[in-house]
Design a protein that fits this description.
About 70% of the residues lie in helices and about 0% in strands. By secondary structure, the chain is an all-alpha fold. Helix 2 runs antiparallel to helix 5, helix 2 runs antiparallel to helix 7 and helix 4 runs antiparallel to helix 7. About 5% of the residues have low confidence. Bound molecules: 2-acetamido-2-deoxy-beta-D-glucopyranose (2 copies).
């Protein structure tokens, strides 16, 4: 734990002096991509369903991750995007009436978003299993239970939008923190 904290501290230190070269202009690209994903998920189908998901939204996971280290938060975002991408590949989308091209672009966008967040991660850490379990349970209780019905895909689409909103908020808070830490450390004193 101590080593990990030191490492994150070091990373922050490096970021504050070398940024954005080292520490990534991940945010602007990420945030642009996040906007595209959110726009497409809303446009690729009709209005979002009023049905409630049988699996309650994991607000608790998001609350917990907000108190975690930045690196852990980035791992969480990357893993969430991976899980979301995979949700749409569990089974056949033939029952949905979504715009095929927008759906395709949406999935490409999620993939890019995941790559963008990965650019500044040196970590090979993986997300805790609660997150994976949540997505597994979600797929099981909606898609698998109904044999990939239209209604279950619409639920998945609505829940995906909620996740993308939450992930956007989380990324914005990381960015605000990084900006604040850069302001605190100020410009590097010149040595001569
Ligand atoms: C995407 O960005 C545009 C332009 O800044 C903004 O008007 C729009 O509300 C954003 N959409 C989402 C879903 O955030
Ligand atoms: C997709 O699922 C439908 C039933 O929902 C089925 O009729 C069709 O054959 C499946 N297509 C593929 C490629 O598995």
């Amino acid at each position: 734990m101590f080593i990990m904290t030191t490492w994150t501290g070091l990373l922050f230190f490096l970021c504050s002096i070398l940024s954005p070269a080292l520490c990534c202009d991940w945010f602007s690209r990420y945030s642009h991509q996040s906007n595209i994903s959110l726009t497409l998920i809303r446009l690729m189908g009709g209005p979002m369903t009023d049905e409630e998901s049988p699996v309650s939204f994991p607000y608790k996971l998001y609350r917990r991750i907000r108190r975690a280290e930045v690196e852990t938060q980035l791992v969480f975002i990357r893993e969430s995007l991976k899980q979301i991408f995979e949700l749409y590949h569990y089974g056949n989308l033939s029952s949905v009436n979504w715009d095929t091209s927008k759906t395709h672009h949406f999935l490409q966008s999620i993939h890019r978003q995941k790559d963008d967040v990965s650019t500044c991660m040196l970590s090979t850490k993986t997300a805790n299993c609660r997150l994976k379990n949540y997505y597994r349970r979600l797929a099981k209780k909606t898609l698998y239970r109904t044999g990939f019905s239209t209604a279950s895909w619409e639920l998945i689409r609505k829940v995906t939008e909620q996740h993308l909103d939450q992930l956007d908020l989380l990324a914005n808070s990381i960015r605000a923190l990084a900006a604040a830490s850069r302001r605190r450390s100020g410009p590097r004193p010149q040595k001569d």
